[in-house]
C-alpha cells in the first residue's frame, strides 16, 4: 500500500516540470510573434513614410513644372503681344491712319488747349480766355475720332516768359515721352489777327528743339477764323507775306478751325484737318516723325519696360521662392509632426513591449520560484519517503529477526 502511494506521488511530481516547459515555450512563441508584429508595423511605417516622401517630391516636381509652364506661357504671350504691337506699329507706319499722334505747339493764348478739345470732341484740356498760359506743363489726352485712335499732346507756350529755360527743357522731354515713338504732325497753332515776330520764328524753334526734319511734319493751324468778319482764311494768308513764308517752311500746309463748344456748327473742320494730316503722312512715306532724340527716348522707354518686366519676373520668382519656402516649411513641419507621432507610437510600442517583457519575466520568475518550491516539496516528500522506507526496512528487518527467532524457538521446541 505504501509502495503504491510513493509511485503515485512520484508520477505527480514528474508532470509539473513538463507543464512548466510547455508554458515557457508558449511564452517564447508569443514573444516571437509579438516581435514579428512589431517588425511588420515598423516596415509598414517606413513604407508609409517613403510613400509620403515620394508624394511630396512628386508634388514639388508638378509645382515646378506648372510654374515653368506658366512662365513659358507668359513669355510666349509677351512675345505674341510684342510681335502684335510691332505688326500694328508697322501697319501704322505704312498707313498712318490707325493711330495718329498730334503735338500742339504755339505761343500762349493761341488756343492750343481749345484746339485739342475740338479735335477730340471733348473737354479733356482745360481752357481759359485769359492771356495767361493755362497749360503749365505738357498734357496728353486720347480719344477715338472717325474709327482711329488719336493722341493729342498739348504743350506750354514756347515763348512764355513765365516758363524758365530749365522748365521748358523738362517739358520738352515730357513731350518726347508722351509722343514716343514720334508724332505724325506738329500743329503750329496761330490765332488769326495776332501774327507776331515770335510766331515767325516758331518753325526754327521747332527745328531747334525737335530736329531739322520736323518742319516737314509741321502744319499751321489757324484759330479764331470766325473773327475775320467777311475775309476768308485764304484772303488773310494772301495778304501777309510773313504768313506765306511761314507756311512755305511747313511741309503740311495750313488749315483753320473754329473752337466752338457747338461742334455741329462746323462738322467738317476736324475730318478735313485729319484728311490733310493723312496726306502729309503719306507724303512723308507713311512714317511718323522720328530723330535721334525720339529713338533715344524710345530706347529708354523700352529699357524701362524691360526693367519693369525684369523686376516683375524677379518679383514673381521671389514670390515663388517664398511659396516654395512656405511649402517646404509646412512639409517639414508635417514631416516632423509625423516623425514625432511615429516616435511616440514606437515609444508606446516599446513601453508596451518592455511592460510585456517585464510581466513575462515576472511570470517566469514566479514560475521558477513555484518550480523550485515544487522541487523543494518534492525533495521533502522524497526525503520523507526515504525516511518512511528506512523505517519500513527497519521494521521489516525487525520482523525478519523476530520471524527467525520464532523459527529458531520452534525448531528448538520440536527437538
From TrEMBL:
<dbReference type="Pfam" id="PF04548">
    <property type="entry name" value="AIG1"/>
</dbReference>
<dbReference type="InterPro" id="IPR006703">
    <property type="entry name" value="G_AIG1"/>
</dbReference>
<feature type="domain" description="AIG1-type G">
    <location>
        <begin position="97"/>
        <end position="298"/>
    </location>
</feature>
<dbReference type="GO" id="GO:0005525">
    <property type="term" value="F:GTP binding"/>
</dbReference>
<keyword id="KW-0547">Nucleotide-binding</keyword>
<comment type="similarity">
    <text>Belongs to the TRAFAC class TrmE-Era-EngA-EngB-Septin-like GTPase superfamily. AIG1/Toc34/Toc159-like paraseptin GTPase family. IAN subfamily.</text>
</comment>
<dbReference type="InterPro" id="IPR045058">
    <property type="entry name" value="GIMA/IAN/Toc"/>
</dbReference>
<feature type="region of interest" description="Disordered">
    <location>
        <begin position="24"/>
        <end position="92"/>
    </location>
</feature>
<feature type="compositionally biased region" description="Basic and acidic residues">
    <location>
        <begin position="299"/>
        <end position="400"/>
    </location>
</feature>
<dbReference type="InterPro" id="IPR027417">
    <property type="entry name" value="P-loop_NTPase"/>
</dbReference>
<feature type="region of interest" description="Disordered">
    <location>
        <begin position="299"/>
        <end position="403"/>
    </location>
</feature>
<protein>
    <recommendedName>
        <fullName>AIG1-type G domain-containing protein</fullName>
    </recommendedName>
</protein>
<keyword id="KW-0342">GTP-binding</keyword>
Amino acid at each position: 500500500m505504501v509502495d503504491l502511494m510513493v509511485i503515485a506521488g512520484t508520477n505527480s511530481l514528474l508532470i509539473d516540470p513538463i507543464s512548466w516547459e510547455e508554458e515557457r515555450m508558449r511564452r517564447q512563441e508569443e514573444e516571437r510573434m509579438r516581435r514579428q508584429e512589431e517588425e511588420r508595423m515598423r516596415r509598414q511605417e517606413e513604407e508609409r513614410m517613403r510613400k509620403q516622401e515620394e508624394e511630396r517630391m512628386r508634388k514639388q516636381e508638378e509645382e515646378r513644372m506648372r510654374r515653368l509652364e506658366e512662365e513659358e506661357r507668359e513669355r510666349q504671350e509677351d512675345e505674341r503681344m510684342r510681335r502684335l504691337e510691332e505688326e500694328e506699329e508697322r501697319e501704322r507706319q505704312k498707313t498712318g491712319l490707325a493711330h495718329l499722334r498730334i503735338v500742339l505747339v504755339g505761343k500762349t493764348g493761341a488756343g492750343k488747349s481749345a484746339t485739342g478739345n475740338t479735335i477730340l470732341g471733348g473737354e479733356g484740356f482745360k481752357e481759359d480766355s485769359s492771356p495767361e498760359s493755362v497749360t503749365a506743363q505738357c498734357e496728353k489726352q486720347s480719344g477715338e475720332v472717325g474709327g482711329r485712335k488719336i493722341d493729342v499732346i498739348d504743350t506750354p507756350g514756347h515763348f512764355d516768359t513765365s516758363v524758365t529755360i530749365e522748365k521748358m527743357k523738362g517739358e520738352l522731354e515730357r513731350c518726347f515721352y508722351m509722343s514716343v515713338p514720334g508724332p505724325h504732325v506738329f500743329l503750329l497753332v496761330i490765332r488769326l489777327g495776332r501774327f507776331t515776330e515770335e510766331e515767325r520764328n516758331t518753325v526754327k524753334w521747332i527745328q531747334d528743339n525737335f530736329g531739322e526734319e520736323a518742319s516737314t511734319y509741321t502744319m499751321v493751324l489757324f484759330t479764331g477764323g470766325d473773327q475775320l468778319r467777311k475775309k476768308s482764311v485764304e484772303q488773310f494768308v494772301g495778304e501777309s507775306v510773313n504768313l506765306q513764308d511761314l507756311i512755305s517752311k511747313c511741309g503740311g500746309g495750313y488749315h483753320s478751325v473754329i473752337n466752338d463748344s457747338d461742334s455741329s456748327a462746323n462738322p467738317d473742320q476736324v475730318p478735313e484737318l485729319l484728311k490733310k494730316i493723312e496726306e502729309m503722312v503719306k507724303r512723308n512715306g507713311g512714317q511718323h516723325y522720328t530723330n535721334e532724340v525720339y529713338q533715344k527716348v524710345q530706347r529708354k522707354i523700352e529699357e524701362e519696360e524691360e526693367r519693369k518686366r525684369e523686376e516683375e519676373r524677379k518679383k514673381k520668382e521671389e514670390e515663388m521662392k517664398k511659396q516654395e519656402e512656405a511649402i517646404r516649411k509646412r512639409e517639414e513641419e508635417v514631416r516632423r509632426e509625423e516623425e514625432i507621432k511615429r516616435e511616440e507610437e514606437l515609444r508606446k510600442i516599446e513601453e508596451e513591449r518592455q511592460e510585456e517583457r517585464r510581466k513575462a519575466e515576472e511570470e517566469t520568475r514566479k514560475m521558477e520560484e513555484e518550480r523550485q518550491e515544487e522541487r523543494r516539496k518534492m525533495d521533502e516528500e522524497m526525503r520523507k519517503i526515504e525516511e518512511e522506507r528506512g523505517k519500513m526496512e527497519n521494521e521489516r528487518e525487525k520482523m525478519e529477526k523476530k520471524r527467525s527467532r520464532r523459527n529458531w524457538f520452534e525448531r528448538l521446541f520440536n527437538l
